[in-house]
Amino acid sequence: MIEIHEVRRARLGELAELCRAHAEYDRRFEPAIAPLPDDLAERLDRLLFTEKSLICLVAEEEGELLGYVSGFATPSTWRGDIYYTMDCLYIAENHRGARLGTRLVDAMREAAESAHAGRLRWQTPLDNDRSKGFYARYGAGNGLGHADKRTYVLPL
């Protein structure tokens, strides 16, 4: 039986490996993705358990992590409330097609609603047609009305 729950500290090494697989998958769409840090599990520990600035929900079956979704609350100046940003959603390749993505997004949606967030936002590479199809079937739309909206990053 597949369970969806918050990742446990003891499983952060396995979560880091799923993150590495996710980054490798996304490099097909964004080749400039840098290698993930060697100390990713320790960094995730700080974000998830010390700062509590990130939440991560995992799908687990018989001791195996099958996928994860992560996100965080973001204040909105224009609305005077918060929204949730879904940072990552990834299902291990051999577990796709079993509705785990839907279950993980549902779980993130519940977390956002329980935090009184007004909406859940995320992005996906423009060339990732499989993900765009999933999100469209889920009922999500581009809230800004710009199908080609890009995100810019300024390294600090």
Intertermini distance: 43 Å
Class by SSE composition: alpha+beta
Beta content: 15-25%
Q: How many runs of DSSP E, i.e. beta strands?
A: 5
- If you compute it from the alpha carbons, what radius of gyration comes out, rounded to the nearest whole angstrom? 15 Å
Helix fraction by DSSP (H/I, runs of at least 4):
25-40%
Widest β-sheet, arrangement of strands = 1-2-3-4-5
Secondary-structure element order, as H and E? EHHEEEHEH
Number of helices: 4
Whole-number mean pLDDT: 86
Shape: globular
Could you name the ranges where pLDDT drops below 50 across 5 or more consecutive residues?
Answer: none
Task: Specify the biggest β-sheet.
Answer: 5 strands, mixed
Write up this protein.
The chain is of the alpha+beta class and 156 residues long. The protein has helices at 12-26, 40-50, 100-114, 129-138, and strands at residues 3-6, 55-61, 64-76, 81-91, 120-121. Strand 2 (55-61) and strand 3 form a beta hairpin. Helix 1 packs across helix 2. The protein starts with a strand and ends in an 18-residue tail after the last helix.
Features:
alpha+beta, 156 residues, five-stranded mixed sheet
Layout of helices and strands, plus pairs?
Elements: E1 3-6, H1 12-26, H2 40-50, E2 55-61, E3 64-76, E4 81-91, H3 100-114, E5 120-121, H4 129-138
How would you summarize this macromolecular structure in one to three sentences?
The chain has helices spanning 12-26, 40-50, 100-114, 129-138, and strands spanning 3-6, 55-61, 64-76, 81-91, 120-121. It is α+β, with helices and mostly antiparallel strands and 156 residues long.
